[in-house]
Specification:
Layout (H helix, E strand, L loop, with lengths): L28 E4 L10 H8 L12 H14 L3 E5 L2 H12 L6 E5 L3 H4 L4 H6 L2 E5 L9 H6 L13 E7 L12 H13 L4 E5 L2 H8 L3 H5 L4 E5 L10 E5 L1 H13 L8 H13 L4 H18 L4 E2 L9 E6 L6 H8 L4 H7 L3 E4 L1 E4 L2 E5 L6 H22 L1
Parallel strand pairs: 1-11, 3-4, 3-5, 5-6, 6-7
Antiparallel strand pairs: 2-8, 7-8, 9-10, 10-13, 12-13
Helix pairs in contact: 1-11, 2-11, 3-10, 12-15
């Protein structure tokens, strides 16, 4: 059993766009690491939303939406962009734009968000079949396997026609891994041989850009389209942006309408997106640093009960494993999320840490603008407390 609890650094105040720490509202501190989708817009972002110039976006008359789309296209290094309600819709629209013929096929990683977490929308709505290749631990896949899955015998009436390759960057299920630029270039070269477009599910694209210390356009020069989520690490309450060629976006506008994504005075939401892409990108490095600090703390204070590979923590997502037969992932999450009198007596305060059980004994923790360096150390101290108690019970 480990003796003593880790010491906390001096508390600091943080004010991103006027949003202070809000987790003290209840009787105990709540540190929500389930996802970066739980972040809340700060005062400045809310003020921008409240004062946004608006018009009917379905008519193309909302000036704030138009400005967001213009600036997003510049960010992507692409001809045009389109504001949509969600990342799932952004990916579906992109698939439908590329795979305009029903019965065609896309190639995607077997652990990709598009494949396992978006309800099979490509097949369910667009009639597009998915063919999977195995995602490697870093989110990439073997290029020989990729090439072997490209259909070469079309128009044989027995087979589908390969129409698209999908990538994900950063890779969610693989722990926020960043796709290396050489890999993207190799996929591009292979796609060019077979005249195939590449779509990037870039829900956390800006995390990848910050981690690689490059511009988003440096990543996307290897891709034909992208979907970027504004409501994850970038802090907006709603919205995603699709990028691509001008004719691609023209088709996307029609598809957005038929899928129910045509919004009217959407500038109220786009105003938040403008702050996201202008003011919220540089601070992502703080989320990356805090995630790595937590991983190093697990290594130091919770091994071998918990296992983590610090070298794989590249952005704001951390995966770690519970190695004890005495606690499931769900049980560990429950203990991290509850406060006991014993904890308050031993540590001097109650802290609830919310985590997400992925599968088996694997847990996920995700950092965002509402989780500070102080929160990270408090979460580590809570983890050490829970591990100590579980170890005591198992002896």
């Amino acid at each position: 059993m480990r003796s003593g609890l880790l010491r906390l650094p001096a508390a600091g105040r943080r004010w991103y766009r006027g949003s202070g720490h809000r987790a003290e509202a209840g009787p105990h501190r709540v540190i929500d690491l389930r996802s970066d989708t739980v972040s809340r817009p700060g005062a400045a972002m809310r003020a921008a939303m409240g004062s946004a110039a608006v018009g009917d976006d379905v008519y193309g008359e909302d000036p704030t939406v138009n400005e967001l789309q213009r600036r997003a296209a510049q960010l992507f290094g692409m001809e045009a962009a389109l504001f949509v309600p969600t990342g799932t819709m952004g990916n579906l629209i992109s698939v439908m734009c590329h795979c305009w013929e029903r019965g065609t096929e896309l190639i995607v990683g077997d652990r990709a968000h598009i494949h396992i977490f978006e309800q099979g929308g490509g097949a369910q709505i667009a009639g597009v079949h998915s063919r999977v290749v195995k995602n490697l631990p870093d989110g990439t896949f073997d290029l020989n396997e990729l090439e072997s899955n490209i259909r070469h015998d079309y128009p044989d009436p027995h087979v589908t026609r390969t129409s698209l390759i999908c990538l994900e960057n950063t890779h969610n299920v693989k722990g926020g891994r960043v796709l290396p630029l050489p890999f993207l270039q190799e996929v591009r070269e292979l796609a060019d041989i077979y005249k195939l477009p590449i779509h990037m599910d870039g829900a956390r694209l800006m995390n990848a850009a910050v981690a690689l210390r490059v511009q988003a356009s440096d990543i996307l020069r290897h891709c034909d389209s992208v979907s970027l989520c504004l409501s994850k690490g970038l802090g907006s309450p709603v919205g995603s942006i699709i990028g691509g060629r001008k004719d691609f976006i023209e088709r996307a506008v029609r598809l957005r309408k038929v899928l129910g994504g045509g919004m009217r005075q959407a500038g109220v939401l786009a105003a938040a997106g403008l702050i996201s892409i202008s003011d919220m990108v540089d601070r992502l490095k703080e989320d990356h640093r805090n995630a790595r600090t937590f991983a190093q703390g697990i290594k130091m204070y919770a091994t071998p009960f918990c296992e983590v590979d610090v070298d794989t923590v590249e952005t704001n997502i951390l995966l770690f494993t519970i190695n004890s037969p005495h606690a499931t992932a769900e049980e560990f999450c429950r203990r991290m999320g509850e406060v006991s009198e014993e904890e308050v007596a031993e540590t001097g305060r109650g802290v609830r840490v919310l985590l997400f059980p992925i599968y088996g004994h694997i847990l996920r923790a995700v950092w965002h603008l509402d989780v500070s360096e102080e929160d990270t150390h408090l979460a580590l101290r809570k983890l050490q407390f829970v591990v100590n108690k579980l170890e005591q019970q198992s002896t």
